[in-house]
Amino acid sequence: MRKLTLYILFVFATSLVVSCSEYNRKPGRTYAPDMVYSRAVDYYNGTEKIEAEKGSYNKMPVKGTVAREQALPDHISELDTLAANANTCSFTFGEKDIEEGKRLFLIHCAICHGEQMDGNGPLYNSGKFAAMPANLKSGEKYLKFTQGRIYHAIVYGKNTMGSYASQLDTKQRWKIVAYIKKVQSENGGEAFTMVKGENAARDTTKVEDKKAIH
Question: What is the CATH number of the domain that holds 166?
Fold first, then answer.
């Protein structure tokens, strides 16, 4: 009986050692190798290499996507100030667009330039600015700014003012410009011409009347 017990223990131990030493993992085929062994590809610069290897790459921009500074006709670069000064609005605006421009101005611009565009915004009155922001309403320098120059400042920023290109799309920027130019026209600036049709004639008449009074 003792010999039988020893024999059983010997067989068990031997089988255990053999099973451990001869163990091999043989997994099946990879179902999605491109997911398991992913390739790091640069979003913009890796397409040529993949095409050279006769591969495919589907991470292309959405159809109709326009890169920054390529949205005609407002693709003017930051340093091209001459073109910026000559730039004009290509949208057709009505009175509702001017009201929307006012709403956007109060949201994004009034905190610095003030609700009245006089530079007395909440940030300046709080003492956080050493110098007063631009007085867009009566400052002679800013009254002479063209609509393109104001638009350019919104896109790229000016002096301590940062860029609002990420907060406002192209049409929204021009609506703000239109509102600013309308207020300026009522305070000694050039005649307002950014509203088309009958509205433009009415606004221009108002400006001329005010100039005659003064």
Answer: 1.10.760.10
For residues 101 and 151, what is the distance between their CA atoms, to the nearest angstrom? 13
Would you tell me how many other CB atoms lie within 10 Å of the CB of residue 30? Answer: 10
Classify residue 132: in a domain, yes or no.
yes
For residue 206, the enclosing domain spans 81-213
Q: Does any domain span residue 10?
A: no
Q: Give every CB contact of residue 135 below 8 A, 6+ residues apart in sequence.
A: 113, 117, 118, 119, 142
Domain count, the chain: 1
Nearest to 167 by CA among 159, 158, 157: 157
pLDDT tens digit string along 93-104?
A: 999 999 999 999
Tokens of 41: 């590809």
Condensed to tens digits (0 to 9), the pLDDT of residues 2-40 reads 677 776 776 666 665 545 544 556 666 777 777 777 766
Torsion of Cα atoms, 161 then 138 then 74 then 165, to 10°? 30
Q: What is the DSSP letter of 195?
A: B
* Bridge partners for 195 per DSSP: 93
pTM for the full predicted model: 0.61
Task: Classify residue 209: in a domain, yes or no.
Answer: yes
Residue 22, domain member (yes or no): no
